[in-house]
UniProtKB/TrEMBL annotation:
Protein name: homocysteine desulfhydrase
The entry's keywords: Lyase, Pyridoxal phosphate, Transferase
Taxonomic lineage of the native organism: Bacteria, Bacillati, Actinomycetota, Actinomycetes, Micrococcales
Cofactor or coenzyme needed: pyridoxal 5'-phosphate
A Pfam short name: Cys_Met_Meta_PP
Species per Swiss-Prot/TrEMBL record: Microbacterium terrae
Length: 462
């Protein structure tokens, strides 16, 4: 809270100016798009030093690009970190952030309330590579602690999950990470550093899908990994040989020796090994788009947040709506966490349930007809856009999940996800009201209403 009041202005300034030194290049006021694959060396000696990581500079845009560097510095500053890596997508950010921590034969504990793409990555691809992942209910601190093994190398969760918008008890999970001696990695995509600086509550590494609110306009994929500088990899060096043992790519030094005093050994590993070898680089053009988006982050997120809470209150009072999953509402099980962790307001990504009919096919038809009546809110599989977006998780983003996984995630056949945009609030609510009106006018069958009561009781029991 005091960080926020103290630094409200600092945040707004940092989001516009951080990371850019106009003395480079042509003194352009706005970061230039350095659309160049590679950079000309002044001499072979300089090239040799750069390749040996003895000095910092530009070699080739897969590993580092000056426009991407501005983005990295800006997001690092907004999150309070010591270094960052910009990559091609949020998916890439999650992948390289965790690969730099957990090797074959090692283990990760993750919340089961994760973005669908992250669940695929952890339970399919990481399993193929021999990295074991245990999924736990993120609200169950005992489950986090019980899942830790000697081979555990990271804990991973989202600060606000989607579509149900659970707000993580970050301090509780951070305490488990600290006693396990491993970093807590937080996907802060939905909260953004404006609503929550995860570092203040004990996170060690933050990842973003910059595709969403950071960019904010639905034009450019990108991801960022930020080292918050809070985890000491030298406390138990044998656990982290990738940072504390000699590293072939820095002749004669370990990454901790080379970058420990200034910079981030962890980010150096992410860039010089995982981004370099696997290739998920961020383009200069996308970095410039994301930078421009970040310049208005606080203004947009404030509007997103206010609009979304107004929509949630409207939906909560609507007879066709069985339940609204929005942590800003007093009825939410995560309302107390929201007050503690998101004092500036909660995110604009949340869900609501219509009264289910008892038949998945009928529910699909009901939701399809509702979406077909919308004019302002668009059917799009994305979040964090300036536009208001709607999605049906059980037939779209979460369609590959098993019935048990869907139930655990509180996603039913009538669960509808919204990402509320920055349009005029009356237009958004008017659009939803018109689309819901025919349902209100009598499409809720008596049997359906009874089934809905059953589900409601089950949901509120947890
Ligand atoms: C979208 C998203 C991702 C993946 O990001 P992409 O940029 O689409 O690859 C990861 N985590 C969360 C929470 C997301 O919403």
């Amino acid at each position: 809270m005091d960080r926020m009041s103290e630094s409200s202005r600092a945040f707004a300034t940092a989001q516009v100016q951080a990371g850019y030194d106009p003395a480079i290049a042509e003194r352009t006021a706005v970061p230039s798009i350095h659309q160049s694959n590679a950079f000309e060396f002044r001499s072979l000696s300089e090239a040799r030093d750069l390749f040996a990581l003895r000095r910092d500079g530009n070699i080739y845009s897969r590993a580092a690009n000056p426009t991407v560097l501005v983005l990295e510095r800006r997001v690092a500053e907004l999150e309070g970190g010591i270094g960052a890596a910009g990559v091609s997508s949020g998916q890439a950010a999650v992948a390289v952030a965790l690969l730099a921590l957990a090797q074959q034969g090692e283990h990760i504990v993750a919340a089961r309330q994760l973005y669908g793409g992250t669940i695929d990555l952890l339970q399919d691809t990481f399993a193929d590579w021999g990295i074991d992942v245990t999924f736990v209910d993120q609200d169950d601190s005992a489950a986090w602690a019980a899942a830790v093994r000697p081979t555990t190398r990271a804990l991973f969760a989202e600060s606000i999950s989607n579509p149900i918008a659970q707000v993580l008890d970050l301090a509780a999970v951070s305490a488990v990470a600290k006693s396990a001696g491993v970093p807590l990695v937080i996907d802060n995509t939905v909260a953004t550093p404006y609503l929550q600086r995860a570092k203040d509550f004990g996170a060690d590494i933050v990842v973003h899908s910059a595709t969403k609110f950071l960019g904010g306009h639905g034009t450019s994929l990108g991801g960022v990994v930020v080292d918050l500088g809070t985890f000491d990899f030298t406390a138990e060096p044998e656990r982290w040989p990738q940072l504390t043992q000699p590293y072939k790519r820095v002749p004669g030094a370990t990454l901790v020796e080379r970058y420990g005093a200034s910079g981030s050994p962890y980010i150096a590993l992410v860039k010089t090994k995982y981004v370099h070898d696997l290739g998920p680089s961020l383009s200069a053009f996308n970095a410039a788009q994301l930078l421009q988006g970040i310049e208005t982050l606080d203004l947009r997120v404030e509007r997103h947040t206010a609009n979304a809470l107004a929509v949630a209150r409207f939906l909560e009072s609507h007879p066709a709506v069985a339940r609204v999953h929005h942590p800003g509402l007093e009825s939410s099980p995560w309302h107390e966490n929201a007050k503690r962790y998101l004092p500036r307001g909660t995110s604009s990504v949340f869900s609501f349930d219509l009264h289910p009919s008892g038949s998945a096919d009928e529910d699909f038809a009901l939701v399809e007809a509702l979406i077909a009546r919308l004019r302002v809110v668009k059917l799009v599989a994305n979040i964090g856009d300036a536009r208001s977006l709607i999605a049906h998780p059980s037939s779209m983003t979460h369609s590959h999940m098993s019935p048990a996984q869907l139930a655990e995630a509180h996603i039913g056949s009538t669960t509808i996800r919204l990402s509320i945009g920055i349009e005029a609030i009356d237009d958004i609510i008017g659009d939803l009201a018109a689309a819901l009106a025919p349902i209100e006018a009598g499409q809720i069958a008596a049997a359906g209403a009874q089934a809905a009561d059953g589900q409601l009781a089950a949901t509120s029991a947890r």
